[in-house]
Structure formats: C-alpha cells, structure tokens
C-alpha cells in the first residue's frame, strides 16, 4: 500500500536518512515502497533528548533512520528503556513500554515512535510535579526566618 504525503511549502522530511526539502508550493508525494520516513515535526535532535522518554524516542528514531549503526542504537534503546522502567510503577506506562519494546524487536520503529509520543504527557506531568514540589519547597525555605536556616 502506498503512502501519500501532502507537504507544505519548504517542509522538510527525512527519507532513509536523507533530508529532503519541499519546494515553494504545497505538493503531494506518493511513496510506493517501504522506506524510513519522518516529517521534520517528528524528528528529534539529540539535544532535545533531555528526559528519559525523549531519550528512548531518540534511540528508536535513530534505529529507524540509521540502519548502519543499528546495533549501537539498539543497545542505547535497551539501556534507556531499562532505566525508565526502573523508575516507574504506573501499569499503563509500563504496558506502553512493553509495546514499544515489541515494536522495536519487530522492526516497527514508526509505531514505536508513536507510542513513545504517547508517554510524553505522562512524563511531563511527573516532571512538572517534581519541579512544582521543588519550587514549593524552595519557597517554604525562603519564608523561614534566617535564624532557623542557620541552625
């Protein structure tokens, strides 16, 4: 089955590791065989992989786009997934991680990336909670009398 993409003017995307830029007008692209393709909005730069789930996403993305280095990226993926699973207890998030692992093992990288994206809000809610708690604790500490901080 063919994949039809409608591209915005100047939209970038990656096909099998090559960055392609659409021209000045909206266009349609029909892909008739199996390729690794990601739109610019779905491509994560290494510098953006700054949370546990984003590090998993980046490793899967690289497995998808850089077949030549797949063994190194698979090891990175395994390590990042193990770290994340060691830090969470939520059943739904763990089930999504199991789906990601299954998809990666079966070469369904695009589906694994989609599942990773579903974990972004889960992770963000927990990271914001920690940040808010840390911020609240800092505010509480700043409200204490200086003598209480000294002792």
Q: What fraction strand?
A: 5-15%
Count of strand segments: 5
The dominant shape is: globular
Q: How far apart are the first and last residues' alpha carbons, in Å?
A: 71 Å
Could you say how many structural domains there are in total? 2
Q: How many DSSP H or I helices? A: 5
**How does the major sheet shape up?**
3 strands, antiparallel
Which radius of gyration do the C-alpha atoms yield?
20 Å
The portion of residues assigned to helices is 55-70%
* Mean pLDDT value: 86
Oligomer: single chain
Strands in their spatial order, largest beta sheet? 3-2-5
Q: SSE order, as H and E?
A: EEEEEHHHHH
Derived from helix and strand composition plus strand pairing, the structural class reads alpha+beta
Low-confidence stretches: 133-138, 144-151
List the helices and strands and how they pair.
Layout (H helix, E strand, L loop, with lengths): L2 E5 L4 E4 L2 E4 L5 E5 L5 E3 L12 H14 L4 H18 L3 H15 L3 H35 L2 H5 L1
Antiparallel strand pairs: 1-4, 2-3, 2-5
Helix pairs in contact: 1-2, 1-4, 3-4
3D architecture notes:
By secondary structure, this protein is α+β, with helices and mostly antiparallel strands. The protein is 58% helix and 14% strand. The strands form two sheets. The protein has a three-stranded antiparallel beta sheet with strand order 3-2-5, with no helix packed on it. Strands 1-4 form a two-stranded antiparallel sheet. A hairpin with a 2-residue loop joins strand 2 (12-15) and strand 3. Helix 1 packs antiparallel against helix 2 and helix 3 (91-105) packs antiparallel against helix 4 (109-143). The longest helix has 35 residues, at 109-143. The radius of gyration is 20 Å and the shape is globular.
């Amino acid at each position: 089955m063919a994949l039809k993409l409608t591209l915005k003017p100047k939209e970038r995307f990656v096909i099998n590791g090559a960055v392609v830029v659409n021209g000045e007008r909206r266009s349609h692209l029909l892909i008739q065989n199996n390729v690794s393709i990601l739109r610019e909005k779905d491509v994560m730069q290494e510098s953006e992989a700054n949370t546990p789930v984003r590090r998993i996403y980046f490793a899967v993305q690289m497995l998808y786009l850089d077949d030549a280095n797949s063994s190194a990226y698979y090891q990175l993926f395994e390590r990042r997934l193990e770290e994340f699973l060691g830090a969470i207890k939520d059943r739904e998030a763990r089930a999504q991680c199991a789906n990601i692992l299954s998809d990666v093992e079966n070469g369904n990288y695009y589906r694994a990336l989609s599942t990773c994206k579903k974990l972004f809000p889960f992770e963000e809610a927990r990271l914001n909670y920690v940040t808010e708690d840390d911020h609240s604790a800092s505010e509480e500490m700043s409200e204490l009398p200086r003598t209480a901080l000294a002792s």
